[in-house]
Structures are given as structure tokens and as C-alpha cells.
Amino acid sequence: MTAAALFTANRARRLSRRLLHIAITLFGLLVLTFFIGRVMPVDPVLAIVGPDADHATYQQVYHQLGFDRPLWMQFLIYLQSLLQGDLGNALLTGKPVSSDILRVFPATLELATLAIIIGAGLGIPLGVLAAARRNSLADYAVRIVSLAGYSTPIFWVGMVGLLVFYAALGWVGGAGRVDLSLDGQVTRHTGLLVVDAILAGNGAVLRSALNHLILPASLLGFHSLAYISRMTRSFMLAQLSQEFVITARVKGLSEWQVIWHHAFRNILVQLLTVVALAYGSLLEGAVLIETVFSWPGFGSYLTSSLMLGDMNAVMGCVLVVGVIFVLLNLFSDLLYQVFDPRTKV
């Protein structure tokens, strides 16, 4: 077998193993979520028929939903429907779960994307600064900010932010994605309100959308900034103690060249994973911020579904979260190969 054929075969085996691991991970996630959902102390039948329904009506709906069947059979039926692309109907809206997720997810995507831009855009430089000025006033300031962002409850920060910047100062918009008077004035193309407003050329909606978006995105970004800056500082400290950095300084290179051209380039691969995981966490973990700001996104939908005991919606959301993390990990692996050619071997 030639070297090229051997290389192709190795890559095919690696891809097969990766796909198998992905399938096992998602299947395990489905099994765990399904059976936990069936033992939750919430009755979805009662949520449908109401507390005043008679026993016959309750039993009829109970049978229609298939709850009278064994758990393993319920799971197989759900899995068969899932393989056909059917996530079931949501109790909350009566619509297919897939259409509900497609409707609410862009709002969270818009929020999380701006948040990770803020978090990574500020967190990485601050982490580098803290490492380069170790034990200085700047280092202590960055570490205090990181500790505050990482340990302060996000819902409390959200309420304080609304009280100060919206109620007291009036610098930002309040709850929701846009002013009520402007709601529905642009056609939904992408679900990203800022993008749709730009496509429609509607400046009033664009300004209102940005005005409502900036505060919750900044607070989420501050939370991710804390994590990203801490990890960046840790990675940079490890690199700045290496011999090649000392050699570069002895050769007379400027501190800027030593930090950014030598040390920082060596942590890019690690930072890719950190930022990707932080982004995934924002996409599925913005529940509290969405609740505080009445943001009609994925987190709010998942919370409402949990409260109602709507396991079709909950399992659909869990599956989406799992796929997001899998895709982000795959994306990180691809970027690894771009920034670190050694991973191609």
C-alpha cells in the first residue's frame, strides 16, 4: 500500500471512529433525558386537560400520548419518529417542536454571538496583559474582574443592569428584542432581528434592536470574558516561562514581538477550544438572562417546556444542545489543523 493510500485509510478510520463516538454520545444523551423526563414529578397530561377534567378525559389523553405503554416501547416509538425527522408536537404551542425551535433559536443565536464577540474580544487581550504584567496592578485588576464575572449570579447582574442602565439612566432598551410599537415591522428572513432590519433597510427597528440587545449581550459577554481571560492568562504564563521566550528576548526582540508573535501563537490552538466551548455554553445557558430580559429565545422556550413537563420540547432542545457542542468540537478540530499542522498527521 502506498503512503498516500495508507494516509487516506487512516483518515477514513479516524473519521469513522469520530462519527461513531458522536452517535453514541447523542444516543446516550437521548436515553438519559427520556427516562429522567418520565420520572419527573410533573404530569404533562394534567397540563393538557387541566385540573378540573374528569377521570375519563384524563385516561383518554393518557392513552393518546402513549403513557400506558412500557417505557422501553415509548422510547422506541420516539426514536423511530426522530429518525424520520419528527420531534413531536409541543404541548406549549401545539406546533411541531422543530418549527418552535427554528422560531426561537435565532434570538438566542443573536444574543450569544454578540456576547462571545465581547467576551473573546476583551477577554483574550486582558488575559495576555495579565500574564505579561504578572503580579502587577494590571494583573490584579484583571483577576478581580474575572473573579467577579465568574462568581456573580448572572440573574442578579441582569436585574441590577436593568435597574441602573434602563430604569435609572435610560441608556438602553428594556425587556424584549424591540420596542412594542416596532414589533412585526420587518419581515422575518433569518430570525436575527438586527440582520433582518438591515435587509429591510429599517433604521428605526435596527436602532431599537441594538438598543435592546446591547445590555443582555454585554452581561453574558462579561460572564464569558471572566472564563476566557482566566484561561488565556494561564496559557500565556506557561508559554512565557519557556526557554524559547527567553531566547527571543536575548536576541533583542521587542516585548510586543515576544508576546504576540511567539508566546501567543503557541496558545491559539488551546484558545480555540476555550472560545468554542464558551460559545456553546452561551447558546444553551442563556436561560437566566433570557428570563430576566423577557428575551423570546431558546432558553426561555426550554424553561417553559420544563415547567409544563413537555418532554417532546425538552428532548428536542436537549438534542439541539448536544448537536451544537458536537459541531463546535468538530469545528475546533478543523481549526486545529489550520493553526497546528502537526494535527494533520
From TrEMBL:
Annotated ranges, domain ABC transmembrane type-1: 105-336
Q: Where are the transmembrane segments?
A: 19-37, 111-132, 144-169, 209-228, 267-293, 313-336
Q: Name one GO cellular component term.
A: plasma membrane
Q: Name one GO molecular function term.
A: dipeptide transmembrane transporter activity
Q: Where in the cell is it found?
A: Cell inner membrane; Cell membrane
User: Does Transmembrane show up as a keyword for this record?
Assistant: yes
Record family assignment = Belongs to the binding-protein-dependent transport system permease family.
The name on file for this protein is: Putative ABC transport system, permease protein
Taxonomy of origin reads: Bacteria, Pseudomonadati, Pseudomonadota, Gammaproteobacteria, Enterobacterales
Q: Which gene encodes it?
A: oppB1
